[in-house]
Design goal:
By secondary structure, the protein is α+β, with helices and mostly antiparallel strands. It folds into 2 domains: 83 residues, Translation initiation factor 3 (IF-3), N-terminal domain (Ubiquitin-like (UB roll), Roll); 83 residues, Translation initiation factor 3 (IF-3), C-terminal domain (Translation Initiation Factor IF3, 2-Layer Sandwich), CATH 3.30.110. Helix content is 32%, strand content 32%. It is built from 4 helices and 10 strands. The strands form 3 sheets. Strands 4-3-6-5 form a 4-stranded mixed beta sheet. The protein is rod-shaped. The protein starts with 6 loop residues before the first strand and ends with a strand.
Amino acid sequence: MRRKNLVPDSRGSQITDDCRINDQIKSRTVRCIDRNGNQIGVVPVEEALALADQSNLDLVEVAPGADPPVCRIMDYGKYKYQKSKRTSSKKQKGATLKEVKFRPKVDVHDYNFKRNHVERFLKAGAKVKVTIMFRGREMAHTDKGMEILQRVAREVEELARVDREPRLEGRNMFMILSPK
């Protein structure tokens, strides 16, 4: 039961998405690995195809650059699915950016509560964007916002370093902290 996941290319020949399988393998001999990961050895490609056929699996060329090429007996559909899952999980990982917003007239309890959130996010490995939002006449006192940002940076300096220094953009002043 050999699968033929073939797609015609511009020249009219049949190719797969990423690697050669079954009858597409052009080498005369291959280093064959069975489905359990045990090496069978260097065998003619016809013999390797017969072994794959007996197991109702595919012969997949996993290392075409080797001499001779390395082929593995496996379920090609399952292999492609697992490979796509690995690549999609790699894309999802990365530094997440959390945001904590303050106001210039923040109360002591509110400040401590939000600073604890910053610490928790940093301990979890996320970057934190600390934002001060100004409204109306508060724009005349941007120095108070700068003081709050510097105080946050000073109080979490054992957990984080400042990636982006505090700066004012429009009505918001922000800085970015990243975990050490």
